[in-house]
Amino acid sequence: MDIVFVTGTAGSGKSLLTAALKNWYVNRGEDAIAVNLDPGVVELPYDPDVDIRERIQLQEVMEDYGLGPNGALILAADLVATKIADLQDEIDSHRAENVIVDTPGQTELFAFRESGAFIVSEMRADTKVLLFLIDPLLASTPANFLSLALLSASVGLRLNIPKITVLSKRDIAKDGVKRITEWSRDTKVFEDALAGTKDGEQYSLYSELFRSIRRLSFGTDLYPVSSTTLEGMVALVGEMTRIAKGGEEFTE
Length: 252
Ligand SMILES: Nc1nc2c(ncn2[C@@H]2O[C@H](COP(=O)(O)OP(=O)(O)OP(=O)(O)O)[C@@H](O)[C@H]2O)c(=O)[nH]1
Ligand SMILES: [Mg+2]
Description:
Elements: E1 2-8, H1 14-27, E2 32-36, E3 50-51, H2 58-65, H3 69-80, H4 84-93, E4 98-102, H5 107-111, H6 114-122, E5 127-134, H7 142-159, E6 163-167, H8 174-185, H9 187-195, H10 200-218, E7 223-224, H11 233-246
Parallel strand pairs: 1-4, 1-5, 2-3, 2-4, 5-6, 6-7
The structure holds guanosine-5'-triphosphate and magnesium ion.
Magnesium ion is lined by residues 14-15, 41, 102, 105.
């Protein structure tokens, strides 16, 4: 069984990509299940096969602990870790080859609290891969792209499994995707774009940071994908399979 954890900033397209990946596998005759790990989500674009909301409900956490919505979201994210044995049993009972895990909308609840790292390290699977989604609509300037690349690197450091950085919403952000892909492939192109927006010390700081963070955040390439038109899915799933086959040998 291979597990993929789908992470990314709020609204970056995690849930829709979870749905698209599940359909992708199922349409090719492979078993796949979608797991929702967000106790606070109201609507999902897929019917989850395993749903944390059956075990933890945000409304109940608010009432039981006398918390407001933000405090309850944090506590609920921590409580997920206490359900890991049940979750694992439920996931295993499906006997699926591919498990796609949709993570909470606020990525810091999953990536930067102990519970997320615990779940990622404790779940039993033959291979584990992390996707981090960069929303091209938020990466409109070199500095914005750099900040998201930093976040991708940071989530990768926290969760510590092989990671693929995905550019989501490829169908509605064609120009953005093209621009960001060029920046990501060639430091010089990024620096030229940066020079148009920053000068002096800021330029030097940003370009130094980009040079050192580049490998850590997206390795050799970004994977532009559309969850609606499915452009880019062949390349993404191919890379996921390559990592799975590489198993232990994979290094960032
Ligand atoms: N056109 C297009 N829209 C997309 C794509 N991916 C996501 N969206 C839209 O972007 C919005 C957010 O998508 P979600 O999948 O809910 O994003 P998310 O990261 O799960 O969001 P939260 O869990 O709320 O943080 C929705 O309106 C989606 O329909 C895509 O590939 N193409
Ligand atoms: Mg979501």
